[in-house]
Every structure is written in structure tokens, then in C-alpha cells.
Fold these 2 entries.
Entry 1:
Amino acid sequence: MTNDQNTKPLRILIWNEFRHEKSNPTVKEIYPEGIHAAIKDGLQSRLGDSATIDCATLDEPEHGLTKERLASTDVLFWWGHMAHDEVTDEIVDRVQSRILAGMGLVVLHSGHASRIFQRLMGTGCMLRWREAAEKERLWIVNPAHPIVAGIEDEFFELPHTEMYGEFFDIPEPDELVFISWFAGGEVFRSGCTFRRGAGKIFYFRPGHETYPIFHNDMIRRVLANAAQWARPDAGTYRGEARQIENPLEDLT
Ligand code: ZN
């Protein structure tokens, strides 16, 4: 029996607000084509023909997230930072509906404060932070999880990162995959999964725009695994109330 679910190419859409790369020379040097282009390269190099990958950005009509485009997306990646407030209610509603119906979502770094992530979590999703180019050690705390498939070490490190520290104001994650330790002493739940409706959500902390995080091979590996993990399941989502017959009437 063929399982279409796993033989059809995975349809990935990478969304980036695409602002820092245009205004900050440091960011432009690291990501001349935009952060989304680097994420796309990383995913394409790992997933090859098993995925089709497109990009969308904030300044496109409807932020590049038309109904048709979302309807043909299996997994949406989200990078935003300085323009969260420019994402309209209509698009937040639309993306949320697609996630509830089964589309996967991978929220990156400062996307913790995006309107869509806050909507899905129902909390402020705030945290402590410091930008001091310090070392981050990402401990794998769920080594059997598909998101860390193929990673045999117990941790990996990024030499220079922006620090995010607890308390991270999110609901209790369904699963923790990574906990980060920083040279300055803080810790952070840096890889968390959630389900909302039929949709799978992965929040992954690394990705500050002034460091070459999305060129890092381990990061690319995690993102490719996350895309595959977040693929919609085969079941049918019923997101409506239904009034049903009273079975007791037949029994009296
Ligand atoms: Zn940052």
C-alpha cells in the first residue's frame, strides 16, 4: 500500500519579515539574499527532491500568505523581529486556521514575540535576553525525538549567540527537545513542541540576525528534521460543534 502522505513532496513555505537585511549592513553581509534564502538553502540541501520550498515576505500583498498559498503549504517557517505589529489580524487569523486544520509551524528565534505564536500559545511568550556574542550549548534532552534524528552527540554548541533566558512565558510544552545553557549562566527551553488542533508547532530558539546561525550545519539539520516532523498527519480535523440526536429517546 502506498502512503501518499509520505511520498508526496513536502511543501514548505519560509516566511521572513525581511527588514534587518535591508537596513543593517552587518545583517546584509551575513544574509545578502535574506534570512529566508539561507534557511531555504539549508533545507533544500538536506531534503533534496523530497520537498518543494518557497518563500514569502511581509511586504508582499497579504504578506505573501494568500489563502491559496497557505492551502498548498504543509509546513510554514516563521522568522520575524522588528515588525511583528505589522502583521494584520486577518493574516494571523488565516494562519491560525490553517494550523488548526493541520499545517505545521516552525517558529524561529525572535518569532517568540510574533502575533501568530502569541495567539497560538495564549501567553505573552516573553523572556530575558542579552546580546553579548556568548557561547550557547544546546543540550538534547529528548534524544529519541525525530527532530534530533541523526545527531549522536549529547549537545552541540554555537560559539556566538544572543542569549535568551528563563523565565520563558509559554504554556507547558508537549515535549522538550533542547535546553540551552549560556556562558553567562542562564538556561532556556530552546526547543519545544506543541499541538494546536491538528497542527504541530516547533519553537526553536537560535537565529539572531547578526550571527550566521542559519549557515550552521547542525542548525540546518535540526530545521530539516523539524520540517519533516511537522508534516500534517493523515487524519481529518473537525473543528466545529455538532448537535447530535439524543440516543435516550429511542430507549424509553
Ligand atoms: Zn535576536
Entry 2:
Amino acid sequence: MNNILTDRHNRKHTYLRISLTERCNLRCTYCMPEGGVALSPKSHIMSFDEIYTIAKTFADNGVTKIRLTGGEPLIRKDITVLLKKLASLPVELAITTNAVSVDRFIDTFKAYGIQNINVSLDSLDADKFKQITRRNYFDKVYYNILLLVKNGFNVKLNAVLIKGFNDNEIIDFINLTKKLAINIRFIEFMPFDGNKWDMKKMVSYNEIMNVVNTSFSEDKVNRIQDAPNDTSKNYKIEGYRGSFAIISSVTNPFCDSCNRLRLTANGQIKNCLFSAKESDLLTPLREGKAIEPIIQNAIKTKLKIRGGMDTIEKLQKPELHTKNRNMTTIGG
Ligand code: SAM
Ligand code: SF4
């Protein structure tokens, strides 16, 4: 089969992340400006039928996993209707959420086979949580994380580390995995339009491992098997129930094995998180045109490393990374 999802570097794209909305009920400083972002007009946002049609086209061409994200996916009105439609596709369905309203969706997730839930949590301290998210939901989010674990979901916590702010919590986060069978993922802070990125604020893979190695003896820190196409390097402390991982998109990108594509809430394909280039699928879909050729072309033009920012020097150039929209409108 001439697979339209294989690029020039022989990477097969089997994983689609769909952003359901540009809106969010939090305002994480590294992701969103305080006043929110300029939103697309409602008529430019994909309807559930359009999301389903595009998702099915990808599934028909070899996508095996779809993750719903945003903005905050769970604030999309009547999301249950969409989940039901997507659950009929032969794909693994997953979700990334800030967990503020997860308690209302436990039965829905179970009903539609959504087992893998990634939750953002950048601090275990309620005051710091409020500082970073600019909202006062720590207790609710923490309760909801425990609720997910209690209900048997496969939970990963995403923590973006920022120097001098939450990097003193690395060991506290890892200690959570002593009793809880969850995976904590430390994410290197990445540059996007308007997020005031500064390399000096980023906590690197090496710095995180130095902290780990000063707190735990070498024989207690076990490197464990990463899943295929995993973006993270995984570890487990001997005897702990859960594990931790580092996503080092800045200092050590994982582009060679990339199998991901992104679909923004306004129906644009992004072939790389770091690429400012987008290909419009929604307009041709609404005009009744075939979208496969556009998908194929978007994949063909995918660059080898980080949307062309193949060195840290290039990544640091604001004129390169500020052309890319912020995470809440891309869909993280
Ligand atoms: N609202 C949901 C949430 O927070 O999990 C889903 C969308 S959010 C944009 C997806 C992920 O992107 C989150 O885990 C967040 O931490 C991450 N993210 C956002 N901006 C980032 C940045 N500048 N650097 C690294 N990760 C970022
Ligand atoms: Fe919202 Fe998620 Fe961005 Fe935080 S990281 S502002 S929760 S979209």
C-alpha cells in the first residue's frame, strides 16, 4: 500500500493528536497569556461530525492511536457525543486533561474504552499550583488524580519544570510513585509564541538526572523499557509502584522515531509540534474535496528535526520559535 502517512525519512505516522478546543479553564503561565489567547471564530472550529470524518480518514490510512487534547478537551460542550463516535473507530483513544472536571467523566471514559489519561500537574504545593495556573483548583485536581488511579486508569502526570520555581519538587514528585502506580513525566520547558521562554528557565534532562542521582543511590534508579515511539526516557526507583520519565524535546529531541501528527481545533494539520507551517484540512473538507492529498503533502514536507530548528541555537532564536502558535491553540 502506498501509505500517505509515511514521510521522506521513512517515519510512519500512526498517532494523531486532536485538539478539541482552543479554550481552557486554567491559564498556565508557560502555555497561555493571562488574558487568554485570540480565539478562532466559532464557525472555524471543527464540528463533531468534521472531527469524526477527519479522524476516520486517518484511521483508514493507518492511524492506530488518537489522543484528544486542547486547550482543555473536557470543557468542549457535549464531548460525550464525540467520544461515542470516535470509540467506534479501530483506534486506541486517549486523553490529555488538566483534570479539573475529570470526576464527571469517570463512567464515560470507562464506557468508551478510554484507559490512558495524561494529567498536567506542575506542583504538589497548592499555592504554587495557583501561581502557575492562575486558578485555585489544586485540591480538586489532586482528588481527581487519585480518583482516576482508584478506578484503574493508566495515569501519567505531566510536569513542566521551571528553574527556581518547581525544580525543587522533583523528588517529591518521584516519591509519589512509591505508593501510586502512576508515571510522572518531567517535561523540558519549550518555546512557543508569547510564553516568555528563556533557555535559562528550562530544567534539562541532565539537571533532572543529577538531582535524582544525588537523592537515590545508583543501584536504586533503574532505567526501564520505553514504549515504542515513546518521547520519554523512563526510570523506576527500586521497590516503587510507579515510575518517572523525562521528555527532553529541547536538549535531546526524539525526532528519529516520531510517529505523531497534530490536528488543531480549527482543522489545520501540523506535521511537527515545532513547525509553524500548517495545512488546512477543514476548508477543503467543507467544500467537499478529498483531504488525503493534503494530508499526504503535509507529511511529505515534514522536516527531519524539530520543524527545522535542529540545534539549540536555532531554537533560541525568537524569530524562529515565535512564529509557532502557543500550545493551547496547537493542542499539546
Ligand atoms: N489542558 C490539557 C492539559 O493541560 O493537560 C491539555 C492541553 S496542554 C496544552 C498539553 C500539555 O502541553 C500539558 O501537559 C502541558 O504541560 C504541555 N505544555 C504546554 N505548554 C508547554 C511548554 N511551553 N513547554 C512544555 N510543555 C508544555
Ligand atoms: Fe490549559 Fe493545559 Fe495550557 Fe494549562 S497547559 S493553560 S491546563 S491548555
